[in-house]
Amino acid sequence: MHSIVTMAFFLSLIGCGGPKFPPPAGYVDACYGGYHSDNRRTATTEFVMRVQASEQQWPDLAARLKKFGAEHSLAVFDTSMKLDWMHMLEVSLCSQKGLFIWADNRLYTDPMPDQDANYVLILVNRYSDQYDWKPMAEGLTEVFKDWPGAVAGRYGNIPPPAAN
After folding, report:
1. d(CA 106, CA 112)
2. SS3 for the chain, per residue?
3. Looking at the domain 20-155, which fold is it?
4. Among 7, 18, 28, 109, which residue carries the largest CB count within 10 Å?
5. Could you list the pLDDT tens digit for every one of the 164 residues in the chain?
6. 145: Cβ–Cβ under 8 A, 6 or more apart, which residues?
């Protein structure tokens, strides 16, 4: 019995297999500049957009983002998923030159007290001083100008307030 417990403990320490939901092929290179880069830690959020969108509107929101990414030659990753315990919208638009745009909202079956269920945040991050991110922020604003819900953008890393 002791050897079984010891083996179970040992296996828990070293881990078995990879992550349950690994990033798609090419994601880390396109969005962070590779596994051995410090870009994830040094990225700067330059613009935040808050889009009012119910879960039923997520597919349209994702389609707009994916079209925008394709039009701007960005790598597009839609890693949205529905699980028993969580529904998640997650779309990333990336350039190895130093841009990472990330749209995200997660609805848990056990809601978190400060969860903003009807809003999606879109963050424009850069990890290279040479990347001109401002046209991307302006372009996203244009993409959502006719969105049926409230849309607000703010330069910097603090989200704009939600519409009442």
Report:
1. 10
2. CHHHHHHHHHHHHHCCCCCCCCCCCCHHHHHHCCCCCCHHHHCEEEEEEEEECCHHHHHHHHHHHHHHHHHCCCEEEECCEECCCEEEEEEEEEECCCEEEEEEEEEECCCCCCCCCCEEEEEEEECCCCCCCHHHHHHHHHHCCCCCCCEEEEECCCCCCCCC
3. TATA-Binding Protein (3.30.310)
4. 28
5. 444 433 443 444 444 445 566 777 777 777 776 655 555 566 789 999 999 999 999 999 999 999 999 999 999 999 998 988 888 999 999 998 889 999 999 888 877 666 678 999 999 999 888 889 999 999 999 999 999 999 999 999 989 988 76
6. 151
Residue tagged 């790598």 (tokens): 75
Predicted structure pTM score: 0.80
